Amino acid sequence: MSRIGARDVAKYAAVVCAALAVAYGARVWDEASNEVVLSYGGAPPGALAVDIRNDDGERMRRTEFSPSARREHVVQLPRGRFEARLKVGQAQRDIDFVVEGDGAVQVRWADR
Fold first, then answer.
1. Bridge-partner residues for 97, per DSSP?
2. Is the pLDDT at 14 greater than 80, yes or no?
3. Separation in Å, CA 70 to CA 27, 29, 39, 66
4. pLDDT of residue 31
């Protein structure tokens, strides 16, 4: 039977630490916020209310645009899938979109 020495324990500890560092780095990368320019087009005239929810249904952001405002804003979102609930008066659309990093995403009223 072989014996495990201090050197072997140190090697195993180094491998475990490296694996934990990679896992932690991947988690941080996945949760990092990205600067995303969201623009909303094709909605009927009127005041536009936007609720952005993550995959778990948690509200990440709520914004309201006046009828004359440019329907675009910059938000901080992590990578992942989201749903934008657009509402003008009684009309409403739920539109899915994906954030892959910094950039621009166009959310169109007609998309479903």
1. 82
2. no
3. 35, 32, 9, 8
4. 56
